[in-house]
Design brief:
Blueprint: H1 2-8, E1 16-26, E2 42-44, E3 47-56, E4 62-69, H2 74-84, E5 90-92, H3 100-108, E6 112-114, H4 130-133, H5 137-146, H6 150-153, E7 154-155, H7 160-175
Parallel strand pairs: 1-5, 1-7, 5-6
Antiparallel strand pairs: 1-3, 2-3, 3-4
Helix pairs in contact: 1-7
Length: 178
């Protein structure tokens, strides 16, 4: 399903790229698969959760995603997600991605990092492009559309690969013409 999703991506807008992560509650019966295959189900305050790390293009359509356990921080998955993305003018993310190594990786790709700094930062947000950051809602809207699919909104699958297939299928539907 991931290859079909990639085949459906036609003429994406690579000028801006937006990344973010969202939690998905895992059904109580989705945990505990037999065998050694990865499940990507983590324990958090909310119980069993999975996290979708999503990258969307300038039009708000999904182009890449990673599935991890719910306890995984955004900063730890961002380098793999950013490495998969083609060159862009700017990569926009929220404060959860405020890290110097992420900023350096984005700059090495030839893009501008539009990430607000955390409150305790010594550098501040003087160089922040708040006009472009305002469009970050595009990735949030993509999550809202993805979570309209029941199999994505609540994880019922025991294995990570099966849930990745469901997310890839839902992302592919978003690329189909209306």
């Amino acid at each position: 399903w991931n290859r079909i999703f990639k085949a459906l991506i036609i003429d994406p807008d690579w000028e801006w790229e937006f990344i973010d992560g969202s939690y998905v509650k895992a059904h109580q019966h989705s945990a505990g698969a037999v065998g050694q295959e990865p499940q990507a189900i983590g324990k958090s305050r909310a119980g069993n959760t999975t996290k979708i790390h999503l990258a969307v293009d300038g039009c708000g359509l999904p182009v890449e995603f990673e599935i991890t356990g719910g306890e995984v921080n955004d900063c730890s998955v961002a380098p793999q997600l950013i490495a998969k993305l083609p060159d862009a003018q700017a990569i926009v993310a929220d404060k959860g991605y405020d890290s110097e190594c992420i900023r350096e990786q984005i700059i090495k790709k030839g893009a501008r990092a539009v990430i607000p700094r955390k409150r305790n930062s010594l550098k501040g947000n003087a160089d922040m492009d708040w006009g472009l950051y305002r469009y970050r809602h595009l990735v949030e809207n993509a999550f809202a559309r993805l979570k309209q699919y029941r199999a994505v909104a609540t994880r019922y699958d025991k294995l990570k690969r099966n849930y990745e297939s469901m997310v890839a299928m839902a992302c592919g539907y978003l690329w189909l013409p209306v």
